[in-house]
Amino acid sequence: MSDHDIERVKTGIPGLDELIEGGFPRGDTILIAGKAGTGKSILATQFIYKGATEYNEPGVFVTLEEPPHLIKRNMIRFGMDLEKLVNEKKISIVDLSPSKEVTPVTIGEYPSFDLSGLEAIILNHVKKLGAKRVVLDTLSILAYKFRSRDILREEFFKLTANITRSGVTLLLTSEIPAQQGGLGVFDIEAFLASGVIVLYNEKISDTSRSRSIEVLKLRGSKHSSRIHSMRITDEGIRVWPGEISPGH
Amino acid sequence: MADKKTRKASTKKDEPAKIEVVLFKSDTCAFCPRAEEVVRRTIEDFGSDVFTLKVINVSENPEAAEEFGIFALPTVMIGGMSVTGIPEPDMLMKMVLGAKVMTNKKVVSK
Fold it and tell me: What is the ipTM of this complex?
């Protein structure tokens, strides 16, 4: 491999790697954006699962929204036994969901804080597992947890840089609010990441919807510029690279 | 019944339960030294014998931050409530009073 070749991290998601020259560039931050119910969390979990089971790359899944027991239950449907991988120390699921009983109730916030706590928690797991992949699901929840958005925006840049510094590939999910354009609630999501993937679940008639996926940007890659069909199957997400979405 | 409760409460009053103040900080957090200063001074003003201050350095002990779901620093936690950023002394006072009320309620309801 020459100095100019980019090392690729295979997602293992059927059809997706073909759209992105074989995988995500190692050590990059990739944003997975989409409205509610478009499959962001499934895609992100598949990235961690496939990394651990097929590519010998341990992964850390940080959940800021859904509690781990529900993630495990939901992913079993797609044949992903996360509990087993946790027990085998191939992945860890970091529970920072609001459902944690011991989390204190925040009664005040002053615009003088950083996210070094979150960073320390994530890097601790990365170090323990020797993780090569990290998922943060979902960035958007922080908009509801903290009021000081300017601080958050600045902190996101520090956080993503410090996580990926050691060659970890980071996937961030971002929920696009209904009836809104953009890629998330902070308006800076696209700048945070060197790659952006958007998932859609558009209504195409009174009785049906069509799922699709678009690689909006991926620095250093000749990626597809089309919107491709995508389905959620019994084995998780599957992309049809040769099929252009009928919804677009 | 009421007598019993009052007696129990007043016994506890003689030996006040200490209120635990927990400050989460990190090695890289620029605002943490100032927050620690404010917390220590407020505790002194209030009467340091009423409190125990526990300082958790998340850089050394990330598990503690994970356990309590604390990812913004500095965060001060008192009796199930927390405040993020450099706190104002008034806010800390409110939290302390809230924690005291909760402690008394627990004693009375025992």
Answer: 0.89
